[in-house]
Model the fold of this input.
Amino acid sequence: MLCKSAFSALLDNGSMSAVQIEFINTLTHYLAENGVIEKKVLYRQPFTNIDSSGVSNLFSGKTVQLVQIIDNSNARATA
Done:
């Protein structure tokens, strides 16, 4: 799955918690179904079901990297 491979840099370093991995899996499923994602959606269900604060709290040190991956994924999907 293309969108799963886009997040491999985050997943491969082995320092992610089970909850973070669940978030990434939910995100890749969302992208597979919808093609793109607006960043504001990361602060709504189903993502807030994983962490009530959404992406910022869950990926505090990696939020910028995650958003860059999302932006790149969105750009590829709309190109």
